């Protein structure tokens, strides 16, 4: 008998492997941080013994979901920026908040976002942190990711212009200085948390960076191996601003400056021309699809079906809670499929399996981690979650994939494992005091709203202050 650390048996295992195999009575063995084996329970029982054996009868086991775009600290502003387009929303809500947030608040509010990701089955997140000039704020968000147990990529945003657009001084730095800080973060944190964390680069928007800045980010990425992510054509304003500044639209400008490449994850991509899509294909760009955020801000419907048909890597994302009001990847799964159906007026244009692929295999591929996460296979990281069918929302169940995409909610997520470690069991976090964190975060958000002046947005609305 082979000894492993964790052995889960009698589960319905949705592997998300190349064949999309589903094992109706499956077992999975974990050794350290990796999957040692999986297969039919009867066969696995004959081979493995473990320190911890879990009988998962009646439940389904899925690979962890991959959330490839969020702003973790934005849980601070849930519900404050109602009914605004993105350009007004950043001025009224997120910029004032970013200007005054302190490291303790950034840690607590980011930790809340991490917990919700885990509760909704997400085991990997890519955080797009604002370009704040206080290094302690970046350290605080990174610490929240590490303490939560999530697998994460933390991206440090580069912004070297945009004063005329209202970007605060604390969010603008010379490119050389900002990239030096990104390199410092990479040297300090790459591989932290038993290999769960790495560092990447981010470009805020096309109207908040200079042409030398774009070229410098590409050089840094090439020299360090850091990926680049960027908000791209979330609204029509991106192209208007790019045309005014450079005489060409956003994506042609990114192509011209060499920014586009296989290591580039384009966020939103709502307003795309045929030329834009062709340039993405030529450079093998990955795309982060943010359906709930795009609806919430009224940005439009991204042409994700068209992008997917061109062979581009598509990952699913919540965006920050400021433009979503939550970090629920299960909700995002459902809306990701439904929004495309509405946009195409075709219920078959995105099926449940496609949506799950975007949230697992697609996200892993977009991050360059397809050999590590995104499916359940021997040798891959032990990142997965266990789903119980017995909630009123989900029951009765028939098809496990359709159930997860269209019917499941956070109460269905019973257990979450990241890097071989059980982080949540029977709906309770094993390593953190969730109740205390939530109360502390509520107090922090209330104090932050008062200092930032965003509390005034509630003057004609109800104000809820539970602590």
From TrEMBL:
Keywords: Hydrolase. Residues 61-422 form the Amidohydrolase-related domain. It holds the Pfam family Amidohydro_1. One of its GO terms (molecular function) is hydrolase activity, acting on carbon-nitrogen (but not peptide) bonds. It comes from the Bacteria. This is Amidohydrolase. The lineage of its organism: Bacteria, Bacillati, Chloroflexota, Caldilineae, Caldilineales.
